[in-house]
Amino acid sequence: MSTDASIAKETQGAGGCFPVITDHALEAIAVLDSNGVVHYANAAWVRMHGYQRRSEVVGRQISAFHNKEQMSSNVLPFLQEVAHRGQISGPVGHIHKNGTEVPTNTTMIALKDETGKMRGVVVYAIDTSEPKKLNDEIGNLKSEADKRSAELKLAAARLQERAKELEIVESLLSARGTELSAINKQLWQYMSERGQTQDQLQALKTELAAKEKEAEELSSRLQRQSEEQAKTELRWKTQYSELSKAIKQLHNEVIEMKHQEVEYLEDVDLDAKRVGAKGTLDRDQLKQLSAMAKKFASEEVRESTLTMNKSL
């Protein structure tokens, strides 16, 4: 039996259990002959490469599921190594039907006959694109989380600084509140004092009005007194003028009376001499008569002066 026929028989043998078992596997499984032709592929292998039916895959070369770079760097070296070691595992890239690369973790196991000659290879491939995407997403999320963590740390530091600033502001506001309370107290005290001052001012105004009224009355009284004094002074001046005139008249009258007294005395002396010549009066009688004449003249002058003073 040829190698290809034996491979096909083995994959279809065991009562058809192999396809049933492998179609339920999550790994993509394919069986190659020694020439690299696919003799069997399970449903996961068909789906991983973008095909709908198994018939689109079976009978094709393994190179149909890899690009040239993947064949030269991964697939051919793996096939050569598995021929010597019997089994090999590692990352191997595949190609989807639409041309996109499908990263996998692939295990190859050699199928050998009784002599040890390799008749084919079983390939197990696990699609790592989803885990890779998941890892990339996890990496992105981790980076984002690290970024967010750094931002949160920075925000926390800023919040802490802000909290300190707020504490300082709160302290300043508290001090300001204390100052404002003191100022408010001073204002109330000032308003109270001002109220008392206004009451005092009102009392002073009332007192001042009373004083002004008294001053007006005093001024009016002084004015009247001044007018009366002016009248009195005028009356005094008039009386002084009249008195001066009266004194002058009295002086003239006194002088006139003195003249009359002198004339009277002369007449008395003359009469006395005449009487003496007749021998009827002595010398002492003549002196006594002369003194009486002088006293009479003086009394007349004094009575005239008293009469003038009474008239003033």
Summarize this structure as a short list of keywords or feature phrases.
Beta-Lactamase, 5 strands, alpha+beta, 312 residues, 6 helices, 5-stranded antiparallel sheet, 71% helix
Could you outline the blueprint of secondary structure elements for this entry?
Blueprint: H1 3-12, H2 17-23, E1 28-33, E2 38-41, H3 43-48, H4 68-85, E3 87-95, E4 101-112, E5 118-127, H5 129-278, H6 283-311
Antiparallel strand pairs: 1-2, 1-5, 3-4, 4-5
Describe the fold and architecture.
Among the domains are: 3-127, Beta-Lactamase (2-Layer Sandwich), CATH 3.30.450; 249-311, no CATH class. It is 71% helix and 13% strand. The chain has helices spanning 3-12, 17-23, 43-48, 68-85, 129-278, 283-311, and strands at residues 28-33, 38-41, 87-95, 101-112, 118-127. The radius of gyration is 82 Å and the shape is rod-shaped. The termini are far apart. The model has no long low-confidence stretch (mean pLDDT 81).
The CATH architecture term of the domain at 3-127 is 2-Layer Sandwich
Q: Could you give the order of the helices and strands?
A: HHEEHHEEEHH
What percent of residues are in strands?
Answer: 5-15%
Number of strands: 5
- Low confidence ranges: none
Backbone structural class: alpha+beta
Number of helices in the DSSP assignment: 6
Task: Please give the order of strands in the largest beta sheet.
Answer: 2-1-5-4-3
CATH class identity of the domain at 3-127: Alpha Beta
Looking at this structure, what is the CATH superfamily of the domain at 3-127?
A: PAS domain
| Average pLDDT rating | 81
Q: Over all CA atoms, what is the radius of gyration?
A: 82 Å
Shape assignment: rod-shaped
Oligomer, anyone? single chain
Biggest sheet descriptor: 5 strands, antiparallel
Helix content: over 70%
C-alpha end-to-end distance: 195 Å
